[in-house]
Amino acid sequence: MQSIPLGSISLMAISKRGLLIGATAAAVTAVTVTGAGIHLSQGQAFFQESPKELIDEVWQLIDRNYVDATFNQNDWRAVRQEYLGRAYTDREQAYDAIREMLGKLNDPYTRFMDPQEFKNMQIDTSGELTGVGIQLAQDEKTKELIVVSPIEDTPAFEAGIMARDVIVKIDGQSTEGMDTNAAVNLIRGPEGSSVKLTIRRSGREMDFDLRRARIELHPVRYSVQQGGQGEKVGYIRLTQFSANAADEMRSAIEDLESQQVQGYVLDLRINPGGLLYASVDIARMWIDEGVIVSTVDRQGISEQETANGTAITDKPLVVLVDGGSASASEILSGALQDDKRAILIGSKTFGKGLVQSVRGLGDGSGLAVTVAKYLTPSGRDINHAGIQPDLVVDLTDDQRQELFGASNKIGTSGDLQYVKALEALNQRIAESQQGTKAEATP
């Protein structure tokens, strides 16, 4: 489901390995505290002399790179003439004009960030984060601010905020007409300070008083669990596809292999995505051969990422997904499903199949541009549609609150989806063992 997720971002142009595919349209509401600044004084001076240069720079980037060659049925050259024909007296007017211009694309993932917003977005996942721990997106139809997912063990998670909650007020201020950048600026704040979020869930409004905190992000957690017949099962929970996700996943699988687990449950629930190539790297740990994902740009040029014979294990695998599993989560789960490597259990995924590139601009501001869409190995375009699990196990709001709220029953006997995953995995382990015995029979 942005992504503006977590990863190192180049100031001038993001590398292929830095392509973003998270579900959030702008924002991790926890941002890195770093010592590095962005020094662009020459660009700033140039912009102050000629604000139209920045507007034209944005127009050119969209013209060259945007995924839709019709620009959502806009005459893009006429748009350029319209906005360069105006007079601008200060940078805020130019920023407003750029946002208005990009609004014509009707694409919440293509967006402009002023210098402070861009600086906030550049998250180094090895750094220290401060915030409440939620990731936001703007609903493309209703324009409401929705929670893609809370980050585990953060104030928002522990308070019981859940994926798909709609934020209607921030400290009493209505979010109607508010974009994600504005919302993030209101939600963020110093460590120890408080913010009140009013959310709507199933037609009912609730207030959450959250105290901002420092957040340390480790995307992978794992343990050895017991299956129903006493099998040793490796349980791995992946919460986001950040820059260190692949390394942590590799370490988890290798450790569990050394403990001789017989199968795996990979939990991607409420995982909003992140870096495209983190999902590819992790897929290669499970899939030995076959296509992982295709990306298609506006010229129809398709690039495929494939497995490369480096899978760590071929043991039975079950994957848990839900409505908060977005983007990179959908690439990984879609590949595992299409390549017959795993079965998926849970509820339909978020449905975000677009890829963004992030560029730094001349005055220290930034631009995220949707440059491609991605397809699963079988050619499925999951944007809006999501991925349907092989076994649907939907939860009620109350069950989700109990599972993902402060009581945190994820991966326990109180987790209905996890219990179903264990049942399915036990069956696959048994089938695998029977197949091995049959092959050994002379």
Describe this protein's structure:
The model is unreliable at 1-15, 24-48 and 438-442 (pLDDT under 50). It is built from twelve helices and 19 strands. Strand 3 (128-138) and strand 4 (145-150) form a beta hairpin. Strands 1, 3, 4, 5, 6, 7, 8 and 9 form an eight-stranded antiparallel sheet that branches. Among the domains are: 144-215, Pdz3 Domain (Roll); 220-353 and 372-436, 2-enoyl-CoA Hydratase, Chain A, domain 1. It is of the alpha+beta class. Helix 2 packs antiparallel against helix 3 (76-84). It has helices at residues 41-49, 51-65, 76-84, 91-103, 115-121, 155-159, 180-187, 245-258, 276-286, 328-338, 397-404, 416-440, and strands at 27-33, 111-113, 128-138, 145-150, 166-170, 173-174, 194-201, 204-211, 213-215, 220-226, 232-238, 263-267, 291-296, 302-306, 317-321, 343-346, 354-360, 366-375, 391-392. 31% of the residues lie in helices and 25% in strands.
